[in-house]
Amino acid sequence: MRPDLLNPLFAETAGLKGVGPGLSRPLERLGLTRIRDLAYHLPDRFVSRRVVSRLDEAAVGENIVIALTVREHRSSAGRGPYRVLAEDDAGDIVALTYFGRASYSARKLLPPGERRWIAGRLDQFGQTRQIVHPDHIAEDSSALAGQLTEPVYALSEGLTQGRIAALVAQGLEHLPTLPEWIEPGLLAREGWPTWRAAMLAVHKGTDAAAHDRLAYDELLANSLALMLVRAANRSRRGVPLHGDGGLRARLNLPFSLTGAQTRAIAEIEADLGQGAPMLRLLQGDVGSGKTAVALHAMLIAVEAGAQAALLAPTEILARQHGETLTRMAAGSGVSIALLTGRDKGRAREATLMGLLDGSIQILIGTHAIFQDSVAYKNLALVVIDEQHRFGVGQRLMLTQKARTTAHCLAMTATPIPRTLTLAQYGEMDVSRLDEMPPGRQPIDTRVVSTERIDEVVAGLGRHLAAGGQAYWVCPMVRELETEDIAAAEARHAALKLRFGDGVELVHGQLRPEAKDAAMERFASGQSGLLVATTVIEVGVDVPNATLMVIEQAERFGLAQLHQLRGRVGRGSGKSTCLLLRGETLSEVGRERLALMRETQDGFRLAEEDLRLRGGGELLGTRQSGDTPFRVADFDQIARLLPLAHDDARLLMERDGGLDSPRGQAARTLLYLFERDWGVQLLRGG
Ligand code: ADP
Ligand code: MG
């Protein structure tokens, strides 16, 4: 049970003052449904403003606070902006510019003839100086005194900085005082504040010690939870599975296994034969042949008289797996079925019966395969594909679904560096497919300046005319997701104008059915070009697509670029990846793109990625999404994770039941970071 102490943090944000239906949607979209989430919605950065008395004291692009006298309002005909002309004490004019509905507030807040204090960013528009959508307007300067440094938060449609800042401030009033879970020596040595003080500090301004402390909390919670899982797993009894090799011998694969695949299968077979349930991660780059390994693992289970299930993160991936595995296993006589959320009625009933009576031996599907209504005769192995889409908590629940504790094989194509493997999968044993099947053609990767986009489009046209297919990837880098989508939509419209129908668009805000339908038209060859934000990262397998264009490639992380690029080069044809880069490129950006040209080794790229990002390169805010952490950044992971890991191990050695006062505090920590499944395991789970 969650300690009562944490209740205020887990109260709904919907209960805050001023949160009605209009705000709860945007908050939900950002994942801010509870006070806890608001508190951990840390600012992306801070804006600092300078008070100036005259416009000509400020530089273009500077954030200022200045007193202005309002002169006149000018609404433009049609869709142009609304402008309020105002002058400083020296008589210099600046335009306060509003787009769309924001102009209503201008009419109210800026009466002609009145003097107002304005905070905002000074820009130049042609000959005119302007401030677009001033951040604050006040009647006297004291109202802005507290706003000279302000946090900038990630937003979603329907939220403004002012709104979210006010909600965070309201949320912070509810912070409890929590017991200390960090080892006192470490706390003193690092000079870290208490949890509560740190939380308040990070919303006020840049405070490295406070941020480190909160990051450390997160890393410690993670390490500790994973260790609890590992310990619990060791003490648990599973069903040893000994396959006689009969089914595997009848497999009729069109290739022989690579050394890495053979090794991984041997490791899995050894695990499956043990008393304790397997908990193993299979790491292998896109195209390294994880599916064949999964099939072997599942056949071992079936040979031993049990059932196996494979969980895919999306409908389309489940179907693809269903087809591939059925084809691969054709000669073996094993019965394979597919079950997704879309299956209804008779077909679904038949599948459920088959699972219950054991006539279906292997089930492939989305999370629908673990619904309560789905009962297995004797499920003994769960394979989870594209593991990184599922959290540890989720995968625990999945394996516990089996009546005995099932063996678990998790697979991921995300090449991550060793430190992160520890952080993300610390409870698992790891097999790596570090060798590609023979005969892969290297992908011709080129870096091209955006200035040459017309040539790129022309080349794309020739590629499509020759019957080829291609991906066009737009980045997700802006503060507002809708702006990214707008950019992708604009690109889609332009390409459609040029190439006609048969240009698809997919992005994160499409309904799943619409997304699947677009993907399917592309996968079936009906459409030649797929414009996408990064949602194509995982899964899709279209061998005929041999060209990829990535816009603003410098804004992506290396690992992400690598995964995107892995969508091409899947057939026998020669593939090309064009990395469009902006006109100005930082040193790190240059290095990153050069590495992409140089190597196709995902593990190497992952290590380099961490090194380069640890160096403090600022990427788009959401680009850090490929770690299990929300607070800790790459630099903190590299610096603090080893400490947290050792600390967690020490605590486990001394107090594996988390009963001591510090152990109790650690339980609070686990609940705070919603690693409560870790705590639940303590009671024999
Ligand atoms: P991933 O690891 O990305 O899931 P897949 O399992 O989809 O990779 O395999 C990618 C492709 O490589 C498939 O077409 C598969 O048939 C093929 N493949 C797998 N193993 C081998 C092998 N040992 N030799 C040749 N081709 C292989
Ligand atoms: Mg795969």
Account of the protein in words:
The protein is α/β, with parallel strands linked by helices and 685 residues long. It folds into four domains: 1-44 and 160-175, DNA polymerase, domain 1 (Orthogonal Bundle); 45-152, Nucleic acid-binding proteins (OB fold (Dihydrolipoamide Acetyltransferase, E2P)); 256-433, P-loop containing nucleotide triphosphate hydrolases (Rossmann fold, 3-Layer(aba) Sandwich), CATH 3.40.50.300; 444-599, Rossmann fold (3-Layer(aba) Sandwich). It has 23 helices and 22 strands. Strand 21, helix 18 (558-565) and strand 22 (576-581) form a beta-alpha-beta unit. The relative contact order is 0.10. Bound molecules: adenosine-5'-diphosphate and magnesium ion.
Uncertain segments are: 615-625
**Overall geometric form:** globular
Q: Helix segment count?
A: 23
Biggest sheet layout = 7 strands, parallel
How many separate structural domains? 4
Rg over CA atoms, rounded to whole Å, is 28 Å
The count of DSSP E runs of length 2 or more, i.e. the number of strands, is 22
> Which strand order do you get reading across the main beta sheet?
12-13-11-14-15-10-16
CA(first)-CA(last) distance: 13 Å
Q: State the fourth-level CATH superfamily of the largest domain.
A: P-loop containing nucleotide triphosphate hydrolases
Helical residue percent? Answer: 25-40%
Oligomer: single chain
What is the CATH architecture term of the largest domain?
Answer: 3-Layer(aba) Sandwich
Mean pLDDT: 88
Bound molecules: adenosine-5'-diphosphate, magnesium ion
How much of the sequence is in beta strands? 15-25%
State the secondary-structure class. alpha/beta
